[in-house]
């Protein structure tokens, strides 16, 4: 993978003029002890991570955990006490002002929680402002700004003033302004934190939709674990300036690194964390031109009482064992199958497949090309939603076969 940003052993201590705080931190003293004994505040404690091109990397933590301090070091608003922050060949932690200005203009843009829109400028002028600072001609920057507004569904409001828009719409303007610069990296510091819950969820969906299209590299800061789980390709949980755990939502929920993380994820909505692909199992299947005899052999081999019927890999029907046994063994399965079987996408979250699961019939799992790659049952969904970290499969368990490798 192409690494777009690399933070290496980054620390930030405030009011540590004599270096005593750094010395105590290196010896293992806690943030609280250092502050109590020296008055030095540990903002970031030896944090290292890479952010890959096209991923949403979420930094999550409670107030005072250091997440906002960290994100401000990433674009040079705060210089770290030690460590490196590499964006391309530039070390943001130590580069010159000119080099830092160049990085901000060409490679990294920040979207803030409180919109930061100019009230006297139109929506179009607000979005185009960063391009104006770059010296881009009016016609070109307005064209880019309109294109960016169209991406967030606000091109019709280009001539409006910010106070004529709702809070959610204003945040879309802020997002459009960040996108107009076409940055390599987008920093988002609790951008939806000031929004009502319903609008916040809409903005999360908006960002997910934009990311599917634009594939930006995004570093997203939040104190909301559900938001982190919904948005993050990977999530870093911070406490006392340090990373406690980094992983996918599924990894963090299934295998919390300590009691702190375990307490965080105890009440998480697992249906919005786990996807169909996380629990799908092998499917018994036969081609549409197979016979009842062929289907029974597949069902026996898979120890299943049903088989999916596929045409060019796409599920077109479902065959039940009793139907195959009651007819002549040479009967084509297409003549005895049940058409229009329940189908769900492997990338769907579990909460998105409840309706299909209500049929009680195991659902065909398909990839982005619509081809069968596995099967998931109502029981599998219930088991995943009911299980907790302590009930997850142990490391010594035999790994399950990959979904999709079902019948030859």
Structure write-up:
By secondary structure, this protein is of the alpha/beta class. The chain folds into two domains: 191 residues, P-loop containing nucleotide triphosphate hydrolases (Rossmann fold, 3-Layer(aba) Sandwich); 116 residues, CBS-domain (Roll). Helices cover 35% and strands 23% of the residues. It contains 16 helices and 17 strands. Strands 6-7-8-3-9-10 form a six-stranded mixed sheet, with helices on both faces. Strands 2-1-4-5 form a four-stranded antiparallel sheet, with helices on both faces. β11, α13 and β12 form a beta-alpha-beta unit. α1 packs antiparallel against α2 and α5 crosses α6. The longest helix has 18 residues. The radius of gyration is 26 Å and the shape is globular. The protein starts with a strand and ends in a 22-residue tail after the last helix. The C terminus is likely disordered.
Tell me which CATH architecture of the largest domain applies here: 3-Layer(aba) Sandwich
Classify the helix fraction into a percent range: 25-40%
Q: How many structural domains?
A: 2
Largest sheet: 6 strands, mixed
Largest sheet: spatial strand order: 6-7-8-3-9-10
Kindly report how far apart the N and C termini lie.
33 Å
CATH superfamily of the largest domain: P-loop containing nucleotide triphosphate hydrolases
Q: Given this structure, which CATH class of the largest domain is correct?
A: Alpha Beta
Q: Rounded to an integer, what's the Rg over CA atoms? A: 26 Å
The outline comes out as: globular
The count of β-strands is 17
């Amino acid at each position: 993978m192409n690494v777009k940003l690399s933070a290496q052993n980054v620390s930030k201590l405030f009011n540590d003029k004599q270096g005593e705080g750094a010395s105590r931190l290196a010896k293992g003293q806690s943030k609280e002890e250092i502050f109590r004994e020296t008055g030095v505040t540990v903002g970031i404690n030896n944090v290292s991570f890479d952010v890959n091109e096209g991923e949403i990397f979420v930094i999550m933590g409670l107030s005072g955990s250091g997440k906002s301090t960290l994100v401000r070091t990433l674009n040079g608003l705060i210089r770290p006490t030690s460590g490196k922050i590499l964006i391309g060949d530039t070390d943001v932690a130590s580069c010159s002002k000119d080099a830092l200005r160049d990085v901000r203009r060409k490679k990294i843009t920040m979207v803030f929680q409180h919109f930061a829109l100019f009230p006297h400028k139109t929506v179009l002028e607000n979005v185009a402002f960063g391009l104006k600072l770059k010296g881009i001609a009016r016609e070109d920057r307005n064209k880019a700004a309109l294109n960016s507004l169209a991406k967030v569904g606000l091109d019709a409001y280009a001539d409006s003033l910010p106070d004529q828009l709702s809070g959610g719409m204003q945040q879309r303007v802020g997002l459009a302004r960040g996108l107009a610069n076409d940055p390599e990296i987008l920093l988002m510091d609790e951008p939806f934190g000031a929004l009502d819950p319903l609008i916040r969820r809409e903005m999360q969906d908006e960002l997910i939709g934009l990311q599917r299209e634009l594939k930006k590299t995004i570093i997203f800061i939040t104190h909301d674990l559900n938001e982190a789980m919904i948005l993050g390709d990977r999530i870093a949980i911070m406490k006392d300036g340090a990373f406690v755990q980094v992983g996918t939502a599924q990894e963090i929920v299934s295998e919390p690194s300590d009691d702190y993380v375990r307490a965080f994820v105890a009440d998480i909505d697992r249906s919005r964390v786990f996807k169909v692909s996380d629990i799908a199992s092998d499917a018994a299947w036969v081609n549409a031109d197979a016979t009842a005899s062929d289907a029974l052999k597949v069902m026996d081999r898979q120890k299943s009482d049903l088989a999916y019927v596929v045409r060019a890999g796409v599920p077109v029907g479902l065959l039940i064992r009793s139907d195959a046994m009651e007819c002549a063994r040479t009967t084509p399965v297409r003549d005895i199958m049940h058409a229009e079987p329940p189908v769900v996408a492997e990338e769907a979250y579990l909460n998105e497949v409840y309706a299909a699961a209500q049929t009680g019939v195991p659902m065909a799992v398909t990839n982005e090309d619509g081809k069968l790659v596995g099967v998931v049952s109502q029981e599998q969904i219930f088991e995943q939603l009911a299980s907790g970290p302590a009930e997850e499969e142990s490391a010594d368990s035999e790994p399950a076969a990959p979904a999709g490798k079902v019948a030859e």
